[in-house]
TrEMBL record:
Native source organism of the sequence: Lactiplantibacillus daoliensis
InterPro entries on file: NAD(P)-bd_dom, NAD(P)-bd_dom_sf, Polyketide_Oxido-like
Name this protein carries in UniProt: NAD(P)H-binding protein
UniProt domain NAD(P)-binding: residue ranges: 8-189
Length: 212
């Protein structure tokens, strides 16, 4: 039984992870999010909901106490949030992190797809994302960064992984697939340590995502 802190707990993937952890494990969950009235407790003996901003480092330090794993699924300015999160983890002696981000951090996509992605997302947002990843990778925490392809709501679990330094493969991936990998890591935190993983659906390679 572990204590798991979910940052950005109202996200679509976070909700999938939450439901599976409640069903498949005995882990205790702390659900941290802004506007906490958007969620309700499903299992009072194993869950608590806390209203807070990841940029509020002081509050985050308090919430981090006695946590075993932090799973972050955030939106906004990623660089400052990553700094706050790492500071809180270090202060609270919490070491295991799963961080969900997007693809293209290292220009690891095939050239045409990389150019398309950079143009669609925008250079400023991509650089903010890269700064956040660098903060995490340069830290002492035991991280797993997920570089997710363009997400779909398909009711399927079908994915492949690429390591940092390898060329990215596909263009899309289901949220259920991302949630599946996160749940696997939470169940077995010794896998994918100090890793930055690309996650995509096999057979979806192309110059841009299917449907765009």
């Amino acid at each position: 039984m572990k204590n798991v802190l979910i940052l950005g707990a109202n996200g679509q993937i976070a909700k999938l992870v939450r439901d599976r952890l409640l069903k498949e494990t005995g882990d205790n969950l702390t659900l941290y999010l802004r506007h906490s009235n958007r969620l309700t407790v499903k299992n009072p003996s194993r869950e608590k909901i806390i209203d807070g901003d990841v940029n509020d480092t002081k509050k985050l330090i308090e919430v981090m106490k006695n946590q075993d794993i932090v799973y972050a699924n955030l939106g906004g300015k990623f660089g400052p949030m990553a700094k706050s999160m790492i500071q809180a983890m270090n202060t609270s002696n919490v070491n295991r992190l799963i961080y969900v981000g997007g693809l293209g951090l290292y220009h690891e996509l095939p050239k045409k797809f990389d150019d398309w992605n950079e143009n669609v997302i925008g250079h400023e947002v991509m650089e903010d994302t890269r700064r956040a990843a660098k903060v995490i990778e340069d830290s002492d925490v035991n991280f797993t960064i997920l570089r997710c392809a363009y997400m779909t709501n398909e009711d399927k679990i079908d994915y492949e992984l690429t390591e940092k330094g390898e060329e990215y493969k596909g263009t899309i991936v289901s949220r259920k697939s991302i949630a599946d990998l996160i749940v696997k890591i939470i169940k077995e935190p010794t896998i994918h340590q100090k890793s930055s993983l690309g996650i995509d659906q096999p057979g979806t390679d192309g110059d841009k995502p299917v449907g765009y």
